[in-house]
Write a structure and sequence with these properties.
The chain is mainly β. It has a single domain, classed as 7 Propeller (Methylamine Dehydrogenase, Chain H), CATH 2.130.10. Helices cover 0% and strands 46% of the residues. The chain has a four-stranded antiparallel beta sheet, with no helix packed on it. It has a four-stranded antiparallel beta sheet with strand order 2-3-4-5, with no helix packed on it. A four-stranded antiparallel beta sheet has the order 6-7-8-9, with no helix packed on it. Strand 26 and strand 27 form a beta hairpin. The two termini are 23 Å apart. The C terminus is likely disordered.
Length: 347
């Protein structure tokens, strides 16, 4: 299928921030939020043309965001003992007014150290002979460890805590396809010199996990993932080996059961962060050296005008158009003018 026509990447007007910002979340083409490591939360109602600071919580590092609709969302905090100046030990907050006020999620006395990723899955269940909507939420972390997952199958009314210490040293991203089947993107350890990239899969809601990919090389993590379809997915292999110039991504064509390494670019400076695909073939990777684009399912890559350290990409459909939002040292937007194969999603 020919590649969809594109507009140019736009750099959206935002307040300056030292370093990269980590996450951005949209519930439709116009309503979105992004956070910063200073605890500031910004909201847009016009697709990113303008932003309003709706909350500020100094001492909190907003690492991850996941909004269910225009009012209800979840805010993940990295936690203490990793970044200087972070004093907030609450890993997850809920908002029911579009981000203006935050309530700590009640975990019943258990907790995790911090959150690096939030996955919001809108699904359905059969209840008394009727189909009713169901929202499944997972929040996981963290970089540097220790690891754990917060899980809710009722839209955030109640939560369970999954200790992941025996399975992974760090967790950087999480993706669930249904209430029971999901993936964790992680590392085998916490030592940057020896840890290997790791992907884990569960089919029982996190009670047990199977290794489906291990990189076999030290100084690596699996940082972020993107699933444009239920079966096709990609993830970034983040390397801290100064002697290795070849950057890799990994790809699955069977919903995460198996993974194949694909070469991206030979450039030691292009340490990878976020990844986002518009469809099964067309996607972007953010690195410390800027962005890269593929239009053939990861077989080849070319430089793209994405700002440095794009940590997260979000794709949202607007009729016959799809918008790609990227956040890192800048907040950017790309419009795909015609993408009939794109299904509505905010991952």
């Amino acid at each position: 299928m020919p590649a969809a026509p594109l507009s140019a990447w736009e750099t959206l007007p935002t307040e300056s921030f030292p370093g990269k910002r980590d996450d951005i979340s949209f519930v439709d083409a116009t309503h979105g939020w992004y956070g910063t490591g200073k605890g500031d939360l910004y909201r847009t109602t016009d697709g990113g043309k303008s932003w309003t600071k709706v909350a500020s919580k100094p001492g909190t590092f907003i690492r991850a965001l996941g909004f269910v609709d225009r009012t209800t969302g979840f805010i993940g905090n990295i936690g203490t003992d990793y970044y200087p100046g972070v004093t907030d030990t609450t890993p997850l907050y809920r908002t029911d007014d579009g981000g203006a006020t935050w309530t700590p999620v009640d975990l019943g006395g258990r907790t995790i150290a911090g959150v690096c990723a939030i996955d919001v899955l809108k699904t359905q269940r059969i209840y008394q002979g009727k189909l009713e909507p169901r929202v499944v939420i997972h929040a996981a972390g963290r970089v540097g460890g220790p690891t754990g997952i917060l899980r809710s199958t009722d839209g955030g009314k109640s939560w369970s805590v999954i200790d992941m210490a025996e399975h992974a040293g760090m967790i950087l991203d999480i993706k669930f396809f249904d209430e029971r089947t999901g993936l964790v993107f992680a590392s085998t350890g916490t030592d940057p010199k020896t840890t290997e990239g790791l992907i884990l899969r569960t089919t029982d809601g996190g009670k047990s996990w199977t290794r489906v990919y291990t990189s076999g090389r030290g100084a690596e993590l699996i940082w972020k993932a993107s699933f444009p379809t239920a079966t096709t997915g990609y993830a970034t292999v983040q390397s801290y080996d100064p002697a290795r110039a070849q950057q890799l991504i990994v790809k699955t064509s069977d919903g995460g059961k198996s993974w194949t390494e694909l070469p991206m670019v030979e450039n030691a400076a292009a340490r990878q962060f976020g990844i986002g695909f518009v469809d099964a073939d067309h996607g972007f990777v953010g690195t410390m050296a800027g962005g890269f684009e593929t239009r053939d399912g990861g077989r080849t890559f070319a430089p793209a005008p994405v700002a440095r350290a794009a940590n997260k990409f979000r794709v949202v459909q607007d009729g016959k158009r799809a918008h790609v939002f990227a956040i890192g040292t800048e907040v950017q937007r790309l419009t795909v003018d015609s993408a009939p194969q794109v299904t509505a999603r905010t991952r």
